[in-house]
Design a protein that fits this description.
Elements (H helix, E strand, L loop, with lengths): L25 E4 L21 E6 L6 H16 L2 E6 L3 H9 L5 E3 L2 H9 L4 E8 L8 E8 L14 E4 L5 H13 L9 E4 L3 H10 L5 E5 H4 L5 E9 L3 E5 L4 H11 L4 H6 L8 H6 L2 E4 L6 H10 L7
Parallel strand pairs: 2-3, 2-4, 7-8, 7-9
Antiparallel strand pairs: 1-3, 4-11, 5-11, 5-12, 6-9, 6-10
Length: 311
């Protein structure tokens, strides 16, 4: 990516990252094993030593379905119950991480940076890839309804533009940066609409009622025949992370099982639900990433003076 400095601040949707309530945990995955009820002396858990809370951002209506086999795998390998925690929005997951309410999580790159900038103690393990040989990363796509007269990002000026969430990497940070490069100030030159999820952003743009144009990640864009992509940017792959508060042996085990795992490894471990077209379409395996991998996001934060990045 070619990064160019801009002095225009990004749009902030209220106090999105301040003192938000946490969404409750739900839907346990897997069965608890031989873990004790008392946390190890060298660490602590979001709930207890028998449980790992798996946090996710609410990317689409299929979020839990997409992650269930991976959570079942973690449960089988660790012998712990895995609780699914889908926050109400990105900011709520950030707040949950800061408060120590998740043990393992799938963040976007931007939410990871925002969470750690605001005090969350997290360590990246890996990023999910969807095809063999692929490197971590995916595309943020600028989309318009089929047949739209909008052809470039510069044409977004004066339009109603769908974003995903103020803390979304591919659904807000990179789109806003790219708009600034195209001479469109996301604070002044457009009317923003926050859809909440990538699939909803695609849907609203396709309908052409609430949004004239918008942004979403590539995996959701390709599902729709009502929108076309007019620009796209590669963004760093979303990290799977563990909470640094976990006992060292538990975090080491999570790194071992999640740093380089393929869908076939998960099936071989006895998680037969992973052997489906649906899961294989969103998960081939994982590749290790570290904190430095997300420096490009920090760079954009500095160049745009994005308030969401700041502590």
């Amino acid at each position: 990516m070619n990064l160019r400095a801009s002095q225009s601040p990004l749009l902030v949707a209220g106090a999105a990252l301040l003192a938000l309530g946490l969404s409750g945990c739900s839907t346990a995955a897997g069965a608890s094993g031989g873990a004790t009820d008392t946390a190890a002396a060298d660490g602590s858990y979001a709930v207890d030593a028998n449980t790992l809370v798996f946090g996710v951002v609410p990317d689409s209506a299929d979020t839990q379905t997409n992650y269930q086999p991976l959570m079942d795998y973690i449960a089988k390998e660790t012998g712990k119950k895995v609780e699914y925690h889908e926050s109400t929005d990105y900011a709520a997951l950030i707040e949950a991480a800061i408060a120590g309410k998740v043990d393992v999580a799938s963040f976007s790159g931007f939410t990871y940076i925002t969470a750690t900038n605001n005090g969350a103690k997290l360590t990246p393990i890996s990023s999910i890839i969807t095809e063999k040989g692929q490197e971590p990363g995916y595309y943020s796509e600028a989309i318009v309804p089929k047949g739209s007269a909008i052809k470039t990002l510069a044409d977004f000026a004066g339009k109603r533009v769908c974003f995903v969430d103020p803390a979304s990497t591919s659904g807000y940070l990179f789109p806003s940066y790219n708009l600034l490069k195209a001479g469109v100030d996301p604070q002044k030159d457009i009317t923003p609409v926050f859809a909440g999820k990538h699939d909803v952003s695609v849907q609203k743009v396709g309908e052409g009622k609430e949004c004239d144009a918008g942004f979403a990640e590539d995996s959701e864009v390709e599902k729709s025949d009502k929108v076309v992509s007019i620009a796209k940017t590669m963004v760093p792959g979303a990290p799977l992370v563990y909470a640094d508060a976990l006992p060292k042996d538990v975090s080491a085990q999570l790194v071992k099982i999640l740093a380089n795992v393929t869908v076939d490894d998960i099936v071989a471990a006895g998680v037969t639900s992973a052997d489906s077209d649906g899961f294989r379409s969103v998960f081939y395996g994982t590749k290790p990433v570290d904190d430095a991998y997300y420096d490009v996001i920090r760079d954009i934060c500095k160049k745009t003076d994005a308030k969401q990045c700041q502590s």
